[in-house]
Design the sequence.
């Protein structure tokens, strides 16, 4: 009996030792994480000792409850300590981490550009010049399969007035120019056979729309964009060349105002500023259905058109850029092809003939 009590007393003496070992291992683990293994071993030994002692373990449950509270508190402190150490290390190495992120971003961008080039049949590197002339040979739109290519040349004193019937490709050509300017100056990739141009500021007014939520009509939205471009062009005249792209300017208003305002804006943008003549000296391409603009701007804009024809099988287009204004009008013919009543077609053609200049 005496021996059994002595053994049990010795067993009870183990618990304070285990408690101290657990606390010391937990606190030391904040500095040396390997001590958490010692903590785990001490807990396992304590559980085994408790199993051996059976019912007499009740006498030491109080200290272990206190130990559980201490372990929980120490665990929370440990987590806070680890997070604090991590934050401090990140702050100390912030510059290195920022440099690493920039290098990884640059690598990802380079891989994306390489993938774009590998998946494109025709592309070239742009040649940036100190002059003001813009030249592109066999330019195409990268998102149009089998896109018909066109060659364009622009100069500050001579804009391009792009005419043509509906669906001939005027808007696509404008977008091709804009996309390739951005690709040249950001990715060093041009979807063309050659590209020579200065570094440009690009401004566009293509397909604006009305805003019902703000109570703005189509014309007001167009006017806001155009006025902003005029303001930016005045600043660009002193900072560097600007390329402006317009698709059917002021189509939201009547013909008289549209032609007059368009002619004034386009002349101002393309005309260089000299002496009493106030101008912006921009590179300008404007697509329009208003052939009245051709004679009004003949001294500062050269007219081009996109080819088309209409026959019994319907409209067809070559999507090629041709010199001179268009002589084709397919709007009424397209109505007839789509099945509009013959009386409507006859009246429309008679009215168009009466309004045509002699």
Sequence:
């Amino acid at each position: 009996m005496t021996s059994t009590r002595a053994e049990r007393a010795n067993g009870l003496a183990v618990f304070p030792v285990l408690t101290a070992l657990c606390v010391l291992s937990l606190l030391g683990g904040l500095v040396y994480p390997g001590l958490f293994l010692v903590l785990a071993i001490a807990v396992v030994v304590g559980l085994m000792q408790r199993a051996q002692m059976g019912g007499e373990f009740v006498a030491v449950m109080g200290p272990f409850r206190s130990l559980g509270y201490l372990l929980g508190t120490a665990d929370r402190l440990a987590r806070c300590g680890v997070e604090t150490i991590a934050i401090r290390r990140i702050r100390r190495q912030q510059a290195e981490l920022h440099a690493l992120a920039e290098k990884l971003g640059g690598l990802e961008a380079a891989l994306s550009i390489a993938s774009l080039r590998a998946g494109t049949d025709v592309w070239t590197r742009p040649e940036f010049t100190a002059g003001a002339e813009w030249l592109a040979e066999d330019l195409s739109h990268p998102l149009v399969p089998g896109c018909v290519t066109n060659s364009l040349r622009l100069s500050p004193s001579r804009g391009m007035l792009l005419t043509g019937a509906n669906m001939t490709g005027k808007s696509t050509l404008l977008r091709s120019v804009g996309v390739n300017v951005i690709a040249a100056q950001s990715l060093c990739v041009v979807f063309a056979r050659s590209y020579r141009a200065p570094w440009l500021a690009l401004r566009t007014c293509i397909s604006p729309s009305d805003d019902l939520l703000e109570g703005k009509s189509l014309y007001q939205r167009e006017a806001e964009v155009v006025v902003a471009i005029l303001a930016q062009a005045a600043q660009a005249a002193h900072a560097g060349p600007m390329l402006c792209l317009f698709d059917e300017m002021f189509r939201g208003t009547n013909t008289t105002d549209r032609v007059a305002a368009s002619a004034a804006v386009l002349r101002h943008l393309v005309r260089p500023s000299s002496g009493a003549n106030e101008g912006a000296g921009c590179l300008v391409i404007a697509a329009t259905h208003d052939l009245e603009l051709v004679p009004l701007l003949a001294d500062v804009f050269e007219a081009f058109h996109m080819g088309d024809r209409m026959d019994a099988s319907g409209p067809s287009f070559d999507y090629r850029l041709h010199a001179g204004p268009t002589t084709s009008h397919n709007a009424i013919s397209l109505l007839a092809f789509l099945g509009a009543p013959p009386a409507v077609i006859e009246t429309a053609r008679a009215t168009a003939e009466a309004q045509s200049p002699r």
